[in-house]
Amino acid sequence: MTLNQLSPNACGVIEAIHAGQDLRRRLCGLGLRLGIRVRVIRHSPLNGPMQIRVGHTDLILRRSEAANIDVIPT
Asked: Where is the Ferrous iron transporter FeoA-like domain (predicted)?
């Protein structure tokens, strides 16, 4: 399952990141690393970005970027 498929208030643990080196570095800089638990806060309407929480930090990600992140639902 990918991060963009999680419902609001659902949690998951990052299993893999399928992205180029630049995007992978950017996501890593935001705290999105393998084994990290994330929670989806909300999806914007009309296929807009999504808000996720990593630890105590909220992030806004494009759904296309979130589709590159495999998660295991918890």
From this structure: 1-73
